[in-house]
Amino acid sequence: MSVETIRTDKAPAAIGPYSQAVRANGFVFVSGQIPIDPGSGEIVSGGFEEQARQSLENLKQILIASGAGLEKVVAVDVFVTDINKFAAFNMVYEEFFSAHKPARAVVEVNGLPKGVMVEVKCIAVLPPS
Asked: Which domains does the chain carry?
Protein backbone atom coordinates (compact mmCIF):
# COMPACT_ATOMS: atom_id res chain seq x y z
CA MET A 1 0.00 0.00 0.00
CA SER A 2 1.36 3.41 -0.92
CA VAL A 3 0.48 6.46 1.14
CA GLU A 4 1.05 9.96 -0.22
CA THR A 5 0.61 13.29 1.53
CA ILE A 6 -1.32 15.93 -0.43
CA ARG A 7 -0.42 19.62 -0.14
CA THR A 8 -1.67 22.66 -2.07
CA ASP A 9 -1.23 26.40 -1.59
CA LYS A 10 -4.81 26.88 -2.84
CA ALA A 11 -6.09 25.80 0.60
CA PRO A 12 -4.83 26.76 4.03
CA ALA A 13 -1.92 24.83 5.52
CA ALA A 14 -2.71 22.42 8.32
CA ILE A 15 -2.82 24.20 11.70
CA GLY A 16 -1.53 21.17 13.58
CA PRO A 17 0.41 17.94 13.20
CA TYR A 18 -1.60 16.55 10.27
CA SER A 19 -1.81 16.76 6.46
CA GLN A 20 -4.35 18.55 4.30
CA ALA A 21 -5.09 15.14 2.81
CA VAL A 22 -3.66 11.67 2.31
CA ARG A 23 -3.97 9.55 -0.81
CA ALA A 24 -3.95 5.77 -0.14
CA ASN A 25 -5.26 2.63 -1.88
CA GLY A 26 -7.35 4.54 -4.41
CA PHE A 27 -8.92 6.87 -1.85
CA VAL A 28 -8.32 10.45 -0.76
CA PHE A 29 -8.93 11.32 2.88
CA VAL A 30 -9.28 15.09 3.31
CA SER A 31 -8.75 16.51 6.79
CA GLY A 32 -11.33 18.82 8.32
CA GLN A 33 -11.37 22.17 6.56
CA ILE A 34 -12.31 25.34 8.36
CA PRO A 35 -13.04 28.73 6.78
CA ILE A 36 -9.50 30.06 6.54
CA ASP A 37 -8.70 32.14 3.48
CA PRO A 38 -5.55 30.54 2.02
CA GLY A 39 -4.25 33.91 0.82
CA SER A 40 -4.47 35.80 4.10
CA GLY A 41 -4.39 32.91 6.56
CA GLU A 42 -7.33 34.52 8.36
CA ILE A 43 -10.87 33.34 9.05
CA VAL A 44 -13.15 34.70 6.32
CA SER A 45 -15.32 37.64 7.28
CA GLY A 46 -19.08 37.38 7.24
CA GLY A 47 -21.44 34.92 8.81
CA PHE A 48 -22.17 31.23 8.75
CA GLU A 49 -22.82 31.00 5.00
CA GLU A 50 -19.47 32.63 4.15
CA GLN A 51 -17.70 30.27 6.54
CA ALA A 52 -19.45 27.23 5.04
CA ARG A 53 -18.61 28.36 1.49
CA GLN A 54 -14.90 28.87 2.30
CA SER A 55 -14.66 25.53 4.10
CA LEU A 56 -16.13 23.77 1.07
CA GLU A 57 -13.91 25.73 -1.33
CA ASN A 58 -10.84 24.65 0.66
CA LEU A 59 -12.05 21.04 0.49
CA LYS A 60 -12.55 21.36 -3.27
CA GLN A 61 -9.04 22.74 -3.86
CA ILE A 62 -7.43 19.91 -1.90
CA LEU A 63 -9.45 17.35 -3.86
CA ILE A 64 -8.29 18.90 -7.13
CA ALA A 65 -4.66 18.80 -5.94
CA SER A 66 -5.10 15.11 -5.08
CA GLY A 67 -6.25 14.17 -8.58
CA ALA A 68 -9.86 13.70 -7.54
CA GLY A 69 -12.65 16.28 -7.50
CA LEU A 70 -16.00 16.94 -5.90
CA GLU A 71 -17.65 14.42 -8.24
CA LYS A 72 -15.46 11.67 -6.73
CA VAL A 73 -16.50 12.33 -3.12
CA VAL A 74 -18.23 9.35 -1.50
CA ALA A 75 -18.71 10.65 2.07
CA VAL A 76 -18.78 14.04 3.76
CA ASP A 77 -18.74 14.80 7.49
CA VAL A 78 -19.82 18.25 8.63
CA PHE A 79 -19.39 19.73 12.09
CA VAL A 80 -21.39 22.83 13.06
CA THR A 81 -21.60 24.72 16.31
CA ASP A 82 -25.33 25.41 15.78
CA ILE A 83 -27.54 22.69 14.28
CA ASN A 84 -30.13 25.39 13.59
CA LYS A 85 -27.85 26.38 10.68
CA PHE A 86 -28.59 23.02 8.97
CA ALA A 87 -30.82 24.57 6.27
CA ALA A 88 -28.34 27.39 5.65
CA PHE A 89 -25.56 24.83 5.27
CA ASN A 90 -27.63 22.83 2.78
CA MET A 91 -28.09 25.91 0.60
CA VAL A 92 -24.33 26.51 0.40
CA TYR A 93 -23.58 22.79 0.08
CA GLU A 94 -25.76 22.56 -3.04
CA GLU A 95 -23.47 25.11 -4.73
CA PHE A 96 -20.74 22.45 -4.55
CA PHE A 97 -22.76 19.22 -4.68
CA SER A 98 -25.75 19.75 -6.95
CA ALA A 99 -26.06 16.68 -9.20
CA HIS A 100 -23.71 14.44 -7.24
CA LYS A 101 -24.96 13.61 -3.72
CA PRO A 102 -22.37 11.83 -1.54
CA ALA A 103 -23.29 10.19 1.76
CA ARG A 104 -23.20 12.82 4.51
CA ALA A 105 -23.47 13.44 8.22
CA VAL A 106 -23.97 16.80 9.96
CA VAL A 107 -23.17 16.90 13.65
CA GLU A 108 -23.48 19.72 16.17
CA VAL A 109 -20.36 20.17 18.28
CA ASN A 110 -19.54 22.29 21.29
CA GLY A 111 -16.62 24.07 19.63
CA LEU A 112 -14.29 24.07 16.64
CA PRO A 113 -10.69 25.26 16.09
CA LYS A 114 -10.18 29.03 16.06
CA GLY A 115 -13.79 29.54 17.15
CA VAL A 116 -15.23 28.89 13.67
CA MET A 117 -18.82 27.81 13.09
CA VAL A 118 -18.26 24.97 10.59
CA GLU A 119 -15.71 22.31 9.61
CA VAL A 120 -15.99 19.87 6.69
CA LYS A 121 -14.02 16.68 5.85
CA CYS A 122 -14.49 14.03 3.21
CA ILE A 123 -13.40 10.81 1.57
CA ALA A 124 -13.15 10.55 -2.22
CA VAL A 125 -12.19 7.86 -4.69
CA LEU A 126 -9.45 8.44 -7.24
CA PRO A 127 -10.23 8.00 -10.91
CA PRO A 128 -8.60 4.92 -12.49
CA SER A 129 -5.08 5.63 -13.74
From this structure: 3-125 (3.30.1330.40)
The model's pTM:
0.96
3-state secondary structure of 99: coil
User: CB–CB of 113/119 below 8 Å?
Assistant: yes
Among residues 80, 67, 74, the alpha carbon closest in space to that of 21 is found at 67
CB 11 within 8 A of CB 62: yes
The tens digit of pLDDT for each residue in 77-101 reads 999 999 999 999 999 999 999 999 9
Q: Which residues contact 100 (CB under 8 A, 6 or more apart)?
A: 70, 71, 73
Give ∠ CA 96-111-78 in degrees, rounded to 5.
25
Q: Could you tell me whether strands 118-125 and 27-33 are parallel, antiparallel, or unpaired per DSSP bridges? A: antiparallel
